[in-house]
Design brief:
This protein is mainly beta. Helices cover 0% and strands 54% of the residues. A hairpin with a 5-residue loop joins strand 4 and strand 5.
């Protein structure tokens, strides 16, 4: 059974940093494409970033790549999203995804 469990969200102030984690199980983590997607209040899903763990190749939304960094630890079977210089517009539920599988999401709220 594929499981994706996100963590690391919370309430932060503008300009702060957060690192999200996604603990994965039930599939070959080291040979997968893993993605972060977010959904802001009242809006649709927005692609954030993807990593191909078998190539260590990453792709990120151009509007976010200067502040957000995706990475993975194959030994820990964990996906990460380092988010810096957070803005109120980054407020969203952040989801981890692989193929048709989704985690439950972790809430990130950026507010002063």
């Amino acid at each position: 059974e594929v499981q994706l469990v996100e963590s690391g969200g919370g309430l932060v102030q503008p300009g702060d940093s957060l690192r999200l984690s996604c603990a994965a199980s039930g599939f070959t983590f080291s040979a997968s494409a893993l993605t972060w997607v977010r959904q802001a209040p009242g809006k649709g899903l927005e692609w954030v970033s993807t990593i191909y763990t078998y190539r260590s190749k990453t792709y990120s939304a151009s509007s976010l790549e200067s502040r957000f960094t995706i990475s993975s630890d194959n030994a820990k079977r964990t996906l990460y999203l380092q988010m810096n210089s957070l803005k109120p517009d980054d407020t969203a539920v952040y989801y981890c995804n692989t193929a048709q599988y989704w985690g439950q999401g972790t809430q990130v709220t950026v507010s002063s």
